[in-house]
Amino acid sequence: MHQRKSWWRKKSCGDQHGLNLVAALKKQIKDKNLPQNIRAQKSGCLGICDFGPTVAVYPEGIFYVNVHLSDVEEIVESHIVNNTPVDRLLLKHKKDV
Ligand code: FES
Hints:
By secondary structure, the chain is mainly alpha-helical. It has one domain (about 10-95): Glutaredoxin (3-Layer(aba) Sandwich). Helix content is about 30%, strand content about 5%. The chain has three helices and two strands; from the N terminus they run αββαα. It has helices at about 20-30, 70-80, 90-95, and strands spanning about 55, 60-65. It has a two-stranded antiparallel sheet. A hairpin with a 4-residue loop joins strand 1 (about 55) and strand 2 (about 60-65). FE2/S2 (inorganic) cluster binds near residues 49 and 54. FE2/S2 (inorganic) cluster binds near residues 12, 45 and 54.
């Protein structure tokens, strides 16, 4: 049986700053006093670790990848408040490469 060496393992969102993203999203939602049905929560692996920390927005099923803390306010304001996805962070652009 072959096991991958730990240094080969892809970094998970949590290994990077995924949990900080969750906290920042929760803060934005609270600060903007958004309705209680809008929530941020951590998830298990979404299977696209290669693309960097991921934020999935449901029910739309939109995935933002390589998300940085500096992107959180834009995601909330543009996507959640104004229903306009943040195009530059969408997973579709990564698949086209
Ligand atoms: S841990 Fe986030 S996509 Fe795998």
